[in-house]
Amino acid sequence: MNVSVNLDRLLRGQVGLLSIIGAGKTVATVEDDLDLTPDHGGFRAELLTSLATFETNRKRERQTRSNESRAARGLPVPGKRRFGFESGNIVERPEEAGVIRAAHRDLLAGHSVRSIAREWNQRPCAYAPC
Length: 130
Fold this sequence. Notes:
The protein is mainly α. It has helices spanning about 5-10, 15-20, 40-70, 95-110, 115-120, and strands spanning about 1-5, 25-30, 35. The chain has 5 helices and 3 strands, in the order E-H-H-E-E-H-H-H. A 3-stranded mixed sheet has the order 1-2-3.
């Protein structure tokens, strides 16, 4: 038996659902138990998983549009402080922004992302959160 708060917290898509159905498992959630062995249980789970995927995609689209709109108006994008910026994610943090610019120059010069990451990992953690 698989236990979860809600079906959409257990499954991230149809592939995961099909593997649970194929194993003949029952899913127990806070809302109710869902026996996946009869056809109607699997069908119900497929519908719920599809709905959860749809809702996740819609939420991502709304957040993306909102963030693009805020950035276009010069407003901060919500969330954690981005590396290279002060809190609010608009004003640059000079020492970190310089490191980002150097990495872009290295990429354009043909350096690999792996080599840039290796270099960053060898530096003391003076400007980046550890």
